[in-house]
Design brief:
Elements: H1 2-20, E1 28-30, E2 34-40, E3 47-54, E4 62-67, E5 72-75, E6 86-93, E7 99-109, E8 116-124
Parallel strand pairs: 2-8
Antiparallel strand pairs: 1-3, 3-6, 4-7, 5-6, 7-8
Amino acid sequence: MRLLTIIFLALSTNLLIAQSSPSNKPIMKFDTLIYDYGEIPYKGDGNCTFKITNVGSTPLVINEVTTSCGCAAVDWPRKPIMKNESADIIIKYDTRRPGNFNKSIVIKSNAENTPITLEIKGTVLAKK
């Protein structure tokens, strides 16, 4: 009986250690998840940048980026982002579409916290 108790305690301890061990995956961290352009002139600068940092323990690979419309083009790093390194995700919104906008960009990767949704919003002023 004593041997059975010791085996049970040993297995329980190993299970707790395995559950509390840090993840061996990358983790995406953004400086912000929302970019507000405010008011932009018609045909104005529609570029914005989101900084992404890999705060995990292994290289971060962005597999897919999708937008909620064809009015935003995205440039993202195709190479792995190493541990504690940063890169830029650049979004170009088409400012030839007057009016309010609120669009989402979904980032899928090999990270523990995937997917992450970024948001851009603002108002493109009427053509003069």
